[in-house]
Amino acid sequence: MALEVDKIRRDFPLFQQADKEGWVYLDSAATSQKPRSVLAAMNQFYEQENANAHRSSYALAERATLRYEAARERVRRFINAAATEEIIFTRNTTESINLAAFGWAGKFLRPGDEILISEMEHHSNLVPWQRVCQSTGAQLKFVEFDEQGRLVMKQFHQLLGPRTRLVAVAHMSNSLGTIHPMEAMIAAAHRAGSLVLIDAAQSAPHARLDVQALDADFIAFSAHKMLGPLGIGVLYGRRSLLEEMDPLLFGGNMIGRVEHLKTTWNDLPWKLEAGTQNLAGAVGLAAALDYLDELGMEAIEAHDRMLGQMAIQQLCAIPGIRVYGPPDAHGPVVSFNLENIHPHDLATFLDQERVAVRSGHHCCQLVMKRLRVAATARASFYLYNDEEDVRRLAAALYQAKDYFKKWL
Ligand SMILES: Cc1ncc(COP(=O)(O)O)c(C=O)c1O
Questions:
Q1: Residue extents of the structural domains in the chain
Q2: Could you give the count of Cα atoms lying within 13 Å of 376 in the half-sphere of its Cβ?
Q3: Contact 129/121 with Cβ under 8 angstroms?
Q4: What is the CATH number of domain 39-293?
Q5: pTM of this prediction?
Q6: Which residues are catalytic?
Q7: Which residue's CA is the closest to the ligand 1 atom numbered 15?
Q8: 249 close to 124: Cβ distance less than 8 angstroms
Q9: How far is the CA of 62 from the centre of ligand 1 (A)?
């Protein structure tokens, strides 16, 4: 069923202000806006249930613990994990990837082992692997992307070999919007004996994530990009891997028995969650997942893809605009440049037209290097955007062309 965007927008307090002032938010790939139900759930936690979890036995603390663990079960159900022990709360995708990198790869990789990533990765799915390779002697290998912004699959298959211990790739690129053939990549990696980590920061907000169907070994995502609050993310991991890996942080609540010189670890998932957790964040994330499920992830995916396609078509029709990424296999993240105009100048102009887009390297300097540009402008769409928002972007770009014409 098609999304009723007008109705949806009324659920988001920020859009009441935005609509009054007439501006359009096209930066959900950086962070999404939050519906009232998420804000209300977090407020309710702080107003009526706030105590630390897993520490005290009085009734309020029990309630806080139950709410936190219920949020974990909500995440499990949303991604169809086999058990709540496989859901680790972190701060964000970045921390989730670092946890897998240092907790698993840092412990088990040896010189000669290989980690395979792509040149399209966000720095969060690149720099941790560089560090792990530096400390273990493993080698970092890169799959390149072609002119259209697709991974070179032939090269992927060539690079996959008996030494590959881990493939770590984003499901959807945050810089080019490319959606990678994840199922085929996972199957090939497993055939080669490698594990797979999926950076789902950009895909989890837009499409149903079924971890058992995907059969990935680790999956990382952030609440704040999928209607949830800032400061909470998830690492899904296969139970056997989480069991054998080391914690990233050490201290309160992650312990079993502490002696003067040694300590044993708590059971999963708490072994990997040191210190006081973001309880209200977990409650907010659960409310966000309720909201997404109520609309239906299939309807959200269809809506968001339609906006992405429409934006590509309208932007490609503007002379002087170069749109990056493949025309198909493309999510609702659209990167572009206006020839001879720096994207920061373009984004500043668009802001004056009340269209909020991001400009920069999008934490993907390797992508910019390969495209031979310093930066791009990027419009990203979500369930509260509509066709009119795409038209506003295209109209503002025509205005920009007119304004900058003496430099074109
Ligand atoms: C593909 C991808 N991976 C990782 C991240 C990092 O997410 P976070 O900043 O929430 O840790 C982002 C953020 O934009 C992203 O788009």
A1: 5-27+296-407, 39-293
A2: 28
A3: no
A4: 3.40.640.10
A5: 0.98
A6: 363
A7: 201
A8: no
A9: 33
